[in-house]
Amino acid sequence: MNYVGRNTVLYLVLISILLLGFSAIPTASAEPLDPQPWEKSEFNPIVDLGVPGSWDDAGVFWPTVIFENGIYKMWYTGTNGTLPWKIGYATSTDGLTWTKYSGNPVMDAGATDTWDDDAVAAPIVINDNGVYKMWYQGLDFPYWRIGYAVSNDGINWVKHNTNPVLDLGPAGSWDDFYVSVPKVVYDGSTYKMWYTGNDYPYYRIGMATSPDGISWTKYSGNPVLSGPLVRWSGVTGGSVIFDGEDYHLWYSLDNTTGPGGPVEIWYAVSSDGVSWINYYNEPVLEVGDAGDWDDTVLKVPHIMIEFGSVKMWYSGHDGSYNKIGYASFFDSTLAVTSFISEIEELPDTAFINSHYKNAFLQKLEAISRSNNDPTEGTVNKLENDILPKIDTWINDDYSNERQNLKKGTIDLIKYLREH
What we know:
alpha+beta; 4-stranded antiparallel beta sheet; globular
């Protein structure tokens, strides 16, 4: 098989790492997601300004998205052009066409003279066993800090009574002016947060950990990712994905000498979440052409991976307004790996009914239609490990569904070997 393929390149293969001058030196190797042929949606911006006179008629930005029970759920920041900023909610069945909640905003700024009385913004939301947990940045001008709230429905939120849960660093530290843009990953025992710190005027990314999402300990070696220390420049947080082995970070980089951009989205990878490799020597998502809705700034992306489809919702700015856009690409190695994982999780005695069969065959078809090839190791695992498992099912309990699954898998392996 030609694993470079026709007009394609290898996915998830370690190649020579391009270290930018400002990147952290890794203590262990990490496997990057490479390449990343992002394509912006033709329907952008997918979340637009509210109607004139509404709470979000001058800006919608900094989204976070989760997917559950067939519905995409988004929380985002909105503004009418003045403080306070607030947080709204929207839903979608496809991630592209969004319906804003009629009762927006779902979170307002705090009462006068509180830590978040001028703005609440940049939420990150996870669903932890039926409880929605949100970390967000709050503004008591001019200082940003990070707070925490919970909800049973994603709409009615209760702020924690010990907020802010992540405060400014001591005077003279790298994060003594802002702590903002929280991104949280929970691994089942520990909450890990990557956040943007600012010491007026440099932006950098730090890390903190917590056993409960409330009491946080900042990493002693912060910051973990820095940009060129030029006034009003640096790196700001975006989205972190943990794939079970490595951490993947999409973030914004501004290496200009003043506000206004271009600010674009870059990518880094880490084996431990602390030592990061800035994998590319260029942004993975660039600003639009002059006159486009996102021709100046791209910020605070949120990434989701669904069976090989890597999806990004991000904030775009044209010099006047922030709006929300969408970009995506398909990675066949991720898809094959996902397919393998699903098969491996099923017991040998499992009966593959029509529901399973149709779902798996649809995934096999999606892989075969993609314009890139998975890695050789992934195809070998599909052939050497998964086919015997399917054979076990067939031998234990013969069924047409299992025969179809086996045939679909064999056809896919043959296709990949030939292309």
